[in-house]
Amino acid sequence: MKPLSIGIILGSTRQGRVSPQVGNWVKEMADRRGDAIYEIVDIADFQLPFFGEGTGQEPGLIAWSKKLSNLDGFVFIVQEYNHSITGALKNALDSARDEWNNKAAGIVSYGSTGGARAAEHLRGILGELLVADVRAHPTFSIFTDFENIQTFKPAELHVDKINSMLDQLIGWSGALKTLRS
Ligand SMILES: Cc1cc2nc3c(=O)[nH]c(=O)nc-3n(C[C@H](O)[C@H](O)[C@H](O)COP(=O)(O)O)c2cc1C
Question: Which parts of the sequence belong to the NADPH-dependent FMN reductase-like domain (predicted)?
Fold first, then answer.
């Protein structure tokens, strides 16, 4: 049986963003498990137009649709911007529809309160997109899990939480794959 493909989606595109550090760390933890193929999916690479403003034929938009179609599940790396998700992530979510449906997701968030408010906003959006979001939710503090709010230095306790999230994500991604086939 083909292994599950899980995309670790970087939610921010800001210059100087810390999300690649967080995403790479999560990928490192995930790769140790050997239970799926994990890959970083960077929204910035796709240069998505604002939803509805382009022709719908932009190469990045077509590549985004293709990328999501080939994934069985997602880990969203979510940073809190004004108590919600970034505009870039919302636009990326809006820029596909069927490609999200009947798949599972885990959320990893960070911010001054662990990015909890952004993560809860994301859960509402995922419900509409028919994405099943798992309960285990690793949260990082920009004050204690980063050095100078810049360099990611996660506390050891987060490793267990990441694995709990991935346990749930892999279970649901496998179950939902049978629904799509
Ligand atoms: C426009 C903007 C708004 C922000 N609003 C919040 C906020 O409401 N709550 C919070 O905890 N952090 C907030 N932050 C801090 C970010 O969570 C922090 O800068 C984080 O590093 C952003 O992720 P990134 O570096 O991957 O872009 C905000 C940052 C920016 C740039």
Answer: 5-136
